[in-house]
Every structure is written in C-alpha cells, then in structure tokens.
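Course exercise 7: structure representation. Students receive a sequence record and must write out the corresponding structure in token form. The form below is the worked example handed out in class, using Alliinase C-terminal domain-containing protein (384 residues). Read each field label carefully; the graders check that inputs and outputs are placed in the correct fields and that the protein name is recorded exactly as given.

STUDENT ID: A-19
EXERCISE PROTEIN: Alliinase C-terminal domain-containing protein
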Amino acid sequence: EEVQVSSSSNGSSTTTTVVSLDSIINLDHGDPTMYEAFWRKMGDKSTLVIPGWQLMSYFSDIGNFCWFLEPELGSEIRRLHKLVGNADTEDRYIVVGTGSTQLFQAALYALSPPDATEPINVVSASPYYSSYPSITDFLKSSLYKWAGDANSYSKEGPYIELVTSPNNPDGYTRQSVVNRRGGLLIHDLAYHWPQYTPITSVANHDLMLFTVSKSTGHAGTRIGWALVKDKEVAKRMTKFIELNTIGVSKDSQLRAAKILKAVSDTCEIKVDQADNFFEFGRREMSKRWELLREAVKQSGMFSLPEFTSDTCNHSGKITEPHPAFAWLKCEGEIEDCESFLRGHNILTRNGKHFGMDSKYVRVSMLDREATFNQFVKRLSNMHS
Ligand code: PMP
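STUDENT ANSWER:
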C-alpha cells in the first residue's frame, strides 16, 4: 500500500505525518495546519510562558474604550499592518474579539438600527462564506436577518453588505455590489495578506475584520480584530463583546501579540527570503496551486478559477493570487461534486452552502503537506 510521509523537525523533536492511499482526507474546514512547519522553526521567538499569578484581572486597559484590549496586541496589530501595507490603522479604533467570528456578530449588532420596526437585511454576493447565513439567523434576531445573494438584491432602504476580499470560497478580489444609499459595509479581510494575494492597495474601509486564524495560522488562539472608523460603532461592538463574553482571553491576546511580533520581525529582514513569514507562505501556496492545477489537468474532470498576476506592494514582486481554498468545479455529467469526491474518501464542502450549485465544492489548501500531496495524487488519478 502506498503512503505519503512528511516529516518536520525543530531540532529537538520530529513529527511524522503518514497518509495512506485509502485514508479519509478531510479538506472541508479551512484548518490552517500548513503553518505548523514555519512556527516549529521559530522556536523560542514565538514561545510564551505565563506564570500562574499573571493576567488574572478582567481588565486590560481601563482608559481605552475597548477596556479588554491588551495594549501590546493593539500596538503589534498597528505595526504589522504598517509593515505589510495591507490596511490603514491611522485614525481607527481597534476592537479585539474571540476570532473574527465574534467580531462579525458584534458588527451586525453595532450597525443595525436599534429602533427599526423590521430587521435590517444582510446580504453578500454568492458564492459567499458559508457561515454568514447561519451566523446571521442563528438567534432569530429582531435587529438583522439574512437576505441572500447581494447580486440580486434590489430592495429599498438600509441594508448591510458583507464584502469578503479575497473571497472565501473562490479567491477573487471583491468590491461591494449593491452600491445603494443606506448601505452599511462590513469588509471581511481575513485573506488580505501577501501569501494569498498581491497587496495592491492599503485598505481603508469603514469596518474591516482580520484574524490570526488565516494570517499566521493560529486558528486555535481565537483572536481577531476589527479596524473601525466610527467611534460610536466601535463602542457598540465593544458593548456586544462585553455582554457576550466580558472581554477576550488575555492569554490568547498576549500569545497573538507574540506571534504578530515574530511575523513583523521577519518582515524587517529582507522580504524575499524564505524565513520571511509571508514569503514562506507565498512559496508554499504557489507550489500547492501549481500541483493542484497539474492534477486537474491530468484528470480532465474538473476546472478551477483563473487569476491574473499583479505587483505586490509588500514584496515588490509580480505574483498571482494563491487562495486559501480551491473552488473546484466538476465538469461533465457529475451533478454532485461533493458526494463524488466523498466516494474517493475526500471530504469537501458542497457549493450549495455558498449560494451556488452542487457542481462546485470548496477544498482547503491549508492542510499539512502530506495530506495535501495525497489529495492531489488522488485527484490526478480520477478519470471519467
Ligand atoms: N471570515 C472568513 C471569510 C473566514 O474564511 C473565516 C474562517 N474560515 C472567518 C471569518 C472566521 O475566522 P475566525 O477563526 O477568526 O473566527
């Protein structure tokens, strides 16, 4: 029986991942385990030890409107955005959250008119991130409700549009599509980092969401941040988090600060070196997309989105987008791509969850190397 083996070592210990030919490959979630290989090599530079008596208080910065934000995390967020050039942090308020998932909900709360007779409509252009509809409607709020695909939204009055750029699931750069008076925008910029897309402008939208989950790969730390122009909106988001979880884990915030600091430190050395975090990520993603496109070509059963290259302001290089997900389409007879791939023990997410049809699936590109290699190998051997 054939196996794919990948070993990673940090000097003192080695982890070996073995994926056998018929094992189940789960690429349904965007779990960013690809980055473990980088952080192993960083060793002490990204290690945090917390004595038992520290970080016990609820409070982090009582003088700040966001009283639970650790100042160190706030300053590392500003430093990293400045070095990368992907978002403007000047004259903006930072709200920290338990992942950008909590901040998304805080933003819905903060933007909804408090005294409206009807819930405000929440829209996003399909294919949209599959969690938006379920998170929006989960608690049957009287403040806001999911109203579907922004492309076909034509109602009068106020609305909230979610703009994900680069987009999950298809990886394209996006702008708002409704563009009508009364529109409130949430820009989800989880993937607006140089390993995924050439950074061509400094984002300066009213409300932008970021997360360590997709920037550094620390999804388990559950730290996200919002950059907010309007102080009243930032205050209402803070209020939501205060009532929801009385703040955000300090342990996690300090770990995130340490990780962001380590990333920034690598950005200050030459940007085209592999020990630059984003250059590591870009090379790895570029290699994976090349392998995937080769497998798709060999199989002849699928198609993938195409992207155009651009100059990245961070690296100065001309580079193509390398999305965190592959938006794979079954060409030909197969109507349900997800169940077809499940037949080959590959778990993906059905296109219908993203407001599209079942010919499409979303496949994570961020798993460990051995898993990814086994996936492309299996794909290249499929023929109709
Ligand atoms: N927004 C988008 C577009 C995402 O893809 C994800 C993660 N899959 C999230 C938000 C949630 O991120 P977090 O882990 O920070 O809650």
